[in-house]
From TrEMBL:
InterPro entries: FecR, FecR_C, Ferrdict_sens_TM. Residues 218-286 form the Protein FecR C-terminal domain. PANTHER family: PERIPLASMIC SIGNAL SENSOR AND SIGMA FACTOR ACTIVATOR FECR-RELATED (PTHR30273), PROTEIN FECR (PTHR30273:SF2). The keyword Transmembrane applies. The chain crosses the membrane at residues 60-79. This is DUF4974 domain-containing protein. One of its GO terms (molecular function) is sigma factor antagonist activity. Keywords: Membrane, Transmembrane, Transmembrane helix. Residues 85-175 form the FecR protein domain.
Length: 292
């Protein structure tokens, strides 16, 4: 801008205009940078921080929810799959107290499996061998075995479940027994269901004293096939009994004696009734033959 005065001195109007321009840019460089940094932080960095926090919080809750679901699934699987197994040795019996106050007396050489942490949802057991059940009233109580299953609400009953058959005797209440083909029979006190591999399910009357004699530590038989007697000896004493002639199995035994007898004495008691004799090649293998 040029001045109209020959000495180049500004006129009063020009001085007034210049003063306005200088006032506009009179701030220092440091002040300008300070304002700029403030604007950048408030409008840029702060906005990004808020956006970042907004993303982190929902992600955290997702992790918490996922961990909670995983913990619930883990607890469910633990309760459902965690089992308790009770076994008895040869010549041993044992009483098992169940979570609801029900109980099982296991005969020798038997195995009971159940799910203690799942018990309040479903009373399920598996039995291999023989056991007498005293069941408290409640939800369905089911015992499964390889040849059949037994279902009750509240009662007492005996189950025999071995390779040579499946038998259920009802002592009190009512019991429903089903074979692997789905055929079901209901029995009342004094009745016994008999399931044999490949045969139809049968219901018959039974002598409770004989069926439950093992609980009194006795062998008790009433016109029982000799083959069944020898099988009982095998399961109780842990021995193997062979016969020299299949005709020996045509005999039926009646008698009562204590299971506290030794295996040799027990065999002697039975064999004398039929003029039979036995010999052994080792401590646990016996061969029965005619005494003639």
């Amino acid at each position: 801008m040029s001045s109209n005065h020959p000495d180049n001195t500004p006129s009063p109007e020009e001085k007034k205009l210049f003063s306005k321009v200088e006032t506009r840019y009179s701030r220092s460089k440091e002040a300008v940078w300070a304002d700029l940094e403030k604007d950048l932080f408030s409008n840029g960095i702060e906005t990004k921080s808020k956006s970042f926090i907004g993303k982190v919080i929902p992600l955290y809750f997702r992790y918490v929810a996922a961990a909670s679901v995983a913990a619930l699934i883990g607890a469910f699987l633990f309760m459902r799959l965690s089992t308790k197994v009770v076994t008895t040795q040869f010549a041993e019996s044992k009483t098992v107290d169940l979570p609801d106050g029900s109980s099982v007396v296991l005969n020798a050489n038997s195995k009971l499996t159940y799910f203690p942490y799942w018990w309040n949802f479903s009373r399920e057991l598996k039995l291999e061998g023989e056991g007498f059940f005293q069941v408290k009233k409640g939800k369905n109580f089911e015992v499964s075995s390889s040849l059949g299953s037994t279902r009750v609400l509240g009662t007492s009953f005996n189950i025999f479940s071995r390779n040579n058959g499946y038998q259920v005797y009802c002592s009190t209440g009512k019991v429903a027994v089903k074979n692997t083909q789905g055929t079901e029979k209901q029995i009342t006190p004094g009745e016994l269901v008999d399931i044999q591999p490949g045969k139809e399910i049968k219901v018959k009357k039974a002598d409770e004293v004989a069926v439950l004699s093992w609980k009194q530590n006795r062998f008790s038989y009433n016109t029982t096939p000799l083959g069944k007697v020898f099988k009982d000896f095998e399961n109780y004493y842990g021995v193997k009994i062979l016969v020299g002639s299949k005709e020996i199995y045509n005999n039926y035994y009646t008698g009562v004696f204590s299971r506290s007898l030794s295996k040799e004495d027990a065999l002697t008691v039975v064999c004398k009734s039929f003029n039979l004799k036995f010999n052994t090649s080792d401590n646990n293998r016996f061969v029965i033959s005619s005494g003639d």
